[in-house]
Amino acid sequence: MRYFLRDHPDLLNDTLRLRDLCASVQVAIVDVLVTKTIRAAKRLHLGCVTASGGVTCNRALRQRLTAACDRERLRLLLADKTLCTDNAAMIGILAERKLVLRAEAAALDAEILPNWALV
């Protein structure tokens, strides 16, 4: 999305198109998550699927995962939404460790690298 919007900045001025884009991205992400989860459960011959973490607060994901598990006769255990937090605590711990180690801060405009060293 970051790069798509960078390359299509006019979209930011069109609320309807931006909403459509966001909805389409959400549908695509939920579809991939549900499809891969069900595929893995079936491949491993599991009878139960569990989900937790911040992403499981997403209503569309919960609904699609519930429907898919029902259809595939898999038991679904979803963590209560109040227990599905984001990564803020982990980021806080990482920040504290970097402070203790006096690690050099990355530039605010640094490119995101998926294999960045944590400490």
Query: What is the strand tally?
Result: 2
- Biggest sheet, spatial arrangement of strands: 1-2
Sequence stretches where pLDDT stays below 50 over 5 or more residues: none
Oligomer: single chain
Name the beta content range: 5-15%
- Structural class, please? mainly alpha
Amino-to-carboxy terminus distance = 28 Å
Task: Write down the Rg.
Answer: 19 Å
Helix percentage = 40-55%
Total count of domains:
1
- The backbone outline, from C-alpha atoms, is extended
Mean pLDDT: 91
Order of helices and strands: HHEHEH
Largest sheet: 2 strands, parallel
Number of helices: 4
Can you put this structure into words, describing what you see?
This protein is mainly alpha-helical and 119 residues long. It has one domain (2-85). The chain contains four helices and two strands; from the N terminus they run H-H-E-H-E-H. It has helices at residues 2-7, 15-43, 59-71, 88-100; strands spanning 48-51, 75-78. Helix 3 links the parallel strand 1 (48-51) and strand 2. The protein is extended. 5% of the residues are buried.
List the main descriptive attributes of the protein structure presented here.
single chain; 119 residues; mainly alpha; two-stranded parallel sheet; 4 helices; 2 strands; 7% strand
